[in-house]
Write a structure and sequence with these properties.
It is built from 14 helices and 24 strands. The mean pLDDT is 96. Helix 4 runs parallel beside helix 6 (163-174) and helix 8 packs parallel to helix 12 (369-381). The strands form six sheets. Strands 22-23-1-24 form a four-stranded mixed beta sheet. The protein is an alpha/beta fold. The structure holds uridine-diphosphate-N-acetylglucosamine. Uridine-diphosphate-N-acetylglucosamine is lined by residues 23, 26, 91-92, 118, 120-125, 162-165, 302-304, 326-327.
Length: 416
């Protein structure tokens, strides 16, 4: 198994090109199930999670052919089962459920198992599809769903915001009979990207960017070409890398409008953000101050940035409190950061961070995707050498981490 070795203490300086968003690419790829025609996605990052989704689509009969940064999807659905062996690798596999049901009236999808960052049920996905007329049974660890008469439009009010359920129902509703209204829908930029792609495929959707999406179902969708938006979480993560090392990074292709809450918190902490053509620059010349944050659905502070921001707060002046409201078990990076000299205590859903002057290099273990990068950040700032094991978590969602960081001066390497 690979590890990453970092010798910390170098202020990063240079340009990092931000890749296409993983969390946009995953639902966009499942749009390949919604049409017989070719769907061509561009700005596709090379990531393990996207390879897993390609594998899943291929076994449904949809070929996913990469060419550079473009992914061309096409074929006919030949199999409606999403097997445990693939779904267990990646929860987002549940996103094939809505498209398969809408398109061919049946789907058998393994239930995603427990997950490192909480129980993460899929009840909202299932209830929404039931409201649209699907019959759903749970059988031997699988969701067995059918809609022999097709899906019907419905009004669905989510009791709380779910990104995945909004995506699944958006795709299903695009091919349903009649009008579907999704209330309290997620407003993440990845949802708007999905809506843009569906509209390019012929879907009729109103309310883009708001919490009420109105979808008038159409009989068929056609092929389209769609560029994937830049990854806001990768952007925020590298912004933290500039901040924690006291460096100067130009984040190319990055969109400030997708990162309002994160940039606000970084600025409060003493980081300087400057808009540039085709991106923005992140610098820090002076000290960092502790800042409190609470994770929330978009446009709030994203849970996917919580671990990275905590690494930053670990070396800030004073104390800060980070409250996680989206997932119940998302502090697994805390003991690892503490092994590097951080002073963090968890009380329920909040972590109190008392900033220290210096972290020290240590052997640590990655536990989930974003937690892995918080350890990379800590390693970049720490005195001495840090070795992070289980980096397959990192490879799920960050493209070419060592290359991007090394090009900006980091002393980082992958070891087998
Ligand atoms: C997506 C992102 C993930 C991000 C999360 C929150 C992708 C591939 N993943 O995950 O990186 O951390 O949004 O921004 O885009 N819930 C239920 N029942 C459901 C669905 C969700 O109880 O049927 C709960 C979850 O356990 C969680 C909360 O709702 O506590 C939000 O989850 P959700 O927005 O659905 O996250 P994902 O779509 O899984």
């Amino acid at each position: 198994m690979d590890s990453i070795r970092i010798t910390g203490g170098v202020p990063l300086s240079g340009t990092i090109a931000i890749s296409g968003a993983k969390n946009a690419a995953l639902p966009l790829m499942t749009c390949g199930l919604l049409t017989d025609e070719r769907l061509v996605l561009s700005n596709v990052a090379k990531l393990a999670d996207l390879a897993t989704m390609a594998e899943l689509l291929t076994q449904h009969g949809i070929a996913a052919e990469p060419e550079g940064r473009t992914l061309s999807l096409g074929g006919r659905i030949t199999n409606t089962e999403a097997p445990y062996d693939i779904v267990r690798k990646m929860r987002a596999s549940i996103l094939v459920l809505g498209p398969l049901l809408a398109r061919v009236g049946e789907a058998r999808v393994s239930l995603p198992g427990g997950c490192a960052i909480g129980t993460r049920p899929v009840d909202l996905h299932l209830k929404g599809l039931e409201a649209m007329g699907a019959k759903i049974k749970l059988d031997s660890g699988y969701v067995d769903a059918s809609a022999p008469q097709g899906l019907k439009g419905a009004t669905i009010v989510f009791p709380f915001v779910s990104v995945g359920a909004t995506e699944n129902l958006l795709m299903a509703a695009s091919l349903a009979d009649g009008v579907t209204t999704l209330k309290n829908a997620a407003r993440e930029p990845e949802i708007s990207d999905l809506v843009h792609c569906l509209i390019a495929m012929g879907a009729k959707i109103e309310g883009i960017g708001t919490d009420t999406l109105v979808i008038e179902g159409v009989k068929t969708l056609h092929g389209a070409e769609h560029p994937i938006l830049p990854d806001r979480i990768e952007t925020g993560t590298y912004a933290c890398a500039a901040a924690i090392t006291g460096g100067d990074l130009l984040l190319q292709n990055a969109r400030m409008e997708d990162l309002g809450a994160v940039l606000h918190s970084l600025t409060d902490a003493g980081v300087v953000i400057t808009e540039e053509q085709n991106g923005f620059r992140v610098t820090r010349a002076n000290g960092l101050h502790g800042v409190d944050v609470m994770t929330e659905p978009f446009p709030g502070f994203p849970t996917d940035m919580q671990a990275q921001f905590m690494a930053l707060m670990a070396v800030a002046d004073g104390a800060s409190m980070i409250t996680e409201t989206i997932f119940e078990n998302r502090f697994m990076h805390v003991p690892e950061l503490n092994r590097m000299g951080a002073r963090i205590n968890v009380h329920g859903s909040s972590a109190i961070i008392r900033g220290v002057k210096k972290l020290s290099g240590a052997q640590v273990m990655a536990t989930d995707l974003r937690a892995s990068f918080s350890l990379v950040l800590a390693g970049l700032a720490a005195e001495g050498e840090t070795t992070i094991s289980r980096v397959y978590h990192l490879d799920r969602g960050y493209e070419a981490v060592e290359q991007k960081l090394a090009a900006c001066g980091a002393r980082i390497e992958r070891v087998n």
